[in-house]
Amino acid sequence: MTYLTKPKLHHPSLTANKVGYTRRDYEGKISTLCAGCGHDSISAAIIQACWELDIAPHRVAKLSGIGCSSKTPDYFLGASHGFNTVHGRMPSVLTGANLANHELLYLGVSGDGDSASIGLGQFAHAMRRGVNMVYIVENNGVYGLTKGQFSATADQGSKSKKGVVNSDSPVDLVALALQLGASYVARSFSGDKAQLVPLIKGAIGHGGAAFIDIISPCVAFNNHAGSTKSYDYVREHNESVSRIDFITERDEITTSYAPGEMIEVVQHDGSSLRFRKLQSDYDPTDRYAALSYMNAHQARGEVVTGLLYVDPLVTDLHVALNTSDTPLNQLGAAQLCPGARVLDKLNTSLR
Ligand SMILES: Cc1ncc(C[n+]2csc(CCOP(=O)(O)OP(=O)(O)O)c2C)c(N)n1
Ligand code: SF4
Ligand SMILES: [Mg+2]
């Protein structure tokens, strides 16, 4: 059996959010992942974020590739649209779906194998095109589903469960996303829900290419001494740049900070991100400073987490292509196919 359906029992005392759904309505099937797998904590954080943001589940499209991580959309948002693509091809399918209907919230879920090996080209182009999406990589440094081979994000010198030392240089998806033009870039840890939930909420409110790399330990194949993606390693080397509070337009602001301790960034949908600085020299609106800060800390074996970069004035691919405001599935035949005369005129203009 590859999945287990959850019984649909709703206790009458469960709290409903502003669109009338309880947290239970944002769950999916029962997970078949290994007990303790980091990926399940990420599913729980996505459920929490969507419920708290009052997002109607049928307004979300979840897309993924192949891997244990890519199986997880089955375990959250059971009433949303879903598409499990071919290995590494999630970004192009997501881009196409987004161009056809920009009114849904696009959630791309992938693994380090899915995005940093076979799907690296697709990952790169989705980032550089500024597709409006939340792109999550559940990064465990191995191909969990095919029994624990090193993935392209495994650190040089890290050890496999059987003691083999990885000699290849790692692909750092956060560094790539920064370089390629993603406008919201974060790294987090599946074991830090307090950091993860606001980061996901901020990405949902962002309005452009939002990328979150989440270190998500594989308890079956990469949670031993010598791994740099284990629970112990990440807890011991986690260097968080900030704590963020995500505030929607309608939220009452209850937090207060002394001047200099906090940066506020207002996003396109009116939501704001309040950064409590944990590192006084960190500026989350400077793309190149973020890159060099991260590289310097990484060289010391530290895992820098938090919201590393955000451009609040972002635009997305639809703006760049000047597409129709009306989703394609709501246009009539006359608009979708304006006839031979219009086509002739267009062809003539291109001669
Ligand atoms: C075209 C193709 N090549 C190879 C595979 C075999 N395969 C399945 S999952 C996977 C890697 C998954 O790794 P990752 O994306 O890191 O997910 P994880 O299981 O670690 O969460 C591979 C190589 C496949 N399914 N399709
Ligand atoms: S093999 Fe690893 S990644 Fe896959 S479910 Fe088990 S712990 Fe998670
Ligand atoms: Mg993996």
From TrEMBL:
One matching Pfam family: TPP_enzyme_C
The Thiamine pyrophosphate enzyme TPP-binding domain, residue ranges: 66-214
Ranges in a coiled coil: none
Superkingdom assignment: Bacteria
GO BP terms, alphabetized: cellular respiration; small molecule metabolic process
InterPro entries from the UniProt entry: 2-oxoacid:Fd_oxidoreductase, THDP-binding, TPP_enzyme_TPP-bd
Recorded GO MF terms: oxidoreductase activity, acting on the aldehyde or oxo group of donors, iron-sulfur protein as acceptor; thiamine pyrophosphate binding
CDD domains in the record: TPP_OGFOR
Classification via SUPFAM superfamilies: Thiamin diphosphate-binding fold (THDP-binding) (SSF52518)
Alphabetic keyword roster: Oxidoreductase
Full protein name: 2-oxoglutarate ferredoxin oxidoreductase subunit beta
